[in-house]
Amino acid sequence: MTSSPTILVFDSGLGGLTVLREVVAARPDAHYVYVADDAFFPYGHHDEDEIIARVVPLMGELIAAHDPGLVVIACNTASTLVLSHLRAVYSVPFVGTVPAIKPACAQSKTRRVSVLGTKGTVKREYTRALIRDFSQGCEVTLVGSPELASLAERALSGQAISDRDILTELSPCFVGDPDDAAARTDTVVLACTHYPLLLDRLKTLAPWPVDWIDPAPAIARRVSDLLGPPASGPAEAGAEMIFTSRRTHALGPALTPFFGGRLPA
Ligand code: DGL
Fold first, then answer.
1. Cβ < 6 Å from ligand 1: which residues?
2. What is the pLDDT averaged over residues 99-124?
3. Residue of 11, 14, 50 to mutate, ligand 1, most atoms within 8 A of C-beta
4. How far apart are the two ends of the chain, measured CA to CA in Å?
5. In degrees, to the nearest 5, what angle opens at C-alpha 30 toward C-alphas 189 and 53?
6. Structure pTM?
7. Which has fewest Cβ within 10 Å: 95, 115, 123, 208?
C-alpha cells in the first residue's frame, strides 16, 4: 500500500460537496476529510471580521488534527475573504473557490452576465476587483441571495422546497429583454458552492435558457496539478465527514455520490 495524500475540503455546510465530488473524480487516490462548519452556517449572514475570526483559528485546529497535504476552501463567501489570511499563517497549500467571472465574461455572447452568490460574496472587494479586471466590457449584474444556500441545504436533507422560494432568489439574475435572445443575460455564475445542488431546479425555473458556470471542475484540475501524479500502487484512501456542530448526520446514502461512492466515516 502507498500512503495517499489527505485533502481537507472545507465549507460552511454541505455546498462544498459539489466541489468535493469533482476533486474526488480527479483524484480518487486521495484520502478525504470533509468539514462542514455548520455551527456557524450560513457564512453569508456574518460580518467579514466574524468570518476571519472564526475560520483562521478553526483551520489551525483542523490542520493539527488531520495533517492535510492540501486544503480546499470550497466556499466563495470564505475564500473571497480569508484565503490571504490563511496563506499568511499556515504553510499547507490552499485552493480557494472564487466567482468564475473571467471565464463567464469570456464566453458570454450577449455581454450580459449575472453573478449569483451570497450577500457576503457579492459585497466583497475581491469580487468587485474580479469584475474590474475581467469583465471584458460585459455588463455584470451582482445578485446577493439571502436564502438560496439554506434552501439547498434543506433540499439535500430531503425537505420539500417550493418553486416560489427558489424563484424569488433567482429572478434578479435575468436581465434584459425576455423576448430578444441577443439582448438578455446568457450566462449565470454560480458563485456559491451550494447552488449546484439545486441546478436541475434552477434550469427548470429559469425564465429563459442560460449557461450556468460552476467552477468545481477547474478547481479539481488545480488540485490535481498541485498534488502531482498519483503514487503508483493501490492507495489507502478513505473519507471522513465532520460537522463542527458535532451533530451526526442522517444523510448516509445521499452523501456517497459526492464521495465517489465511499461512505464517509
Ligand atoms: N457555500 C458557501 C459559498 O460558496 C456559502 C453558504 C453560506 O452562506 O454559508 O459561498
1. 11-13, 15, 41-44, 75-77, 118, 121, 149, 192-194
2. 98
3. 11
4. 20
5. 55
6. 0.95
7. 208
Domains annotated for the chain, with CATH where assigned, are 6-97+217-254 (3.40.50.1860), 101-214 (3.40.50.1860)
Cα separations in angstroms, 67 against 59, 211, 246: 11, 38, 20
Residue range 43-61, pLDDT digits in tens: 999 999 999 999 999 999 9
Distance 41 CA to ligand 1 centre (A): 8
Give the number of the atom of ligand 1 that is nearest the alpha carbon of residue 45: 8
Distance (angstroms) between ligand 1 centre and the Cα of 120 equals 9
Closest CA to 22 of 265, 230, 215, 264: 215
Residue 1's pLDDT band (cuts 50, 70, 90)? very low
Bridge-based pairing state of the strands 112-118 and 94-95: unpaired
Residues annotated catalytic, as ranges:
75, 192
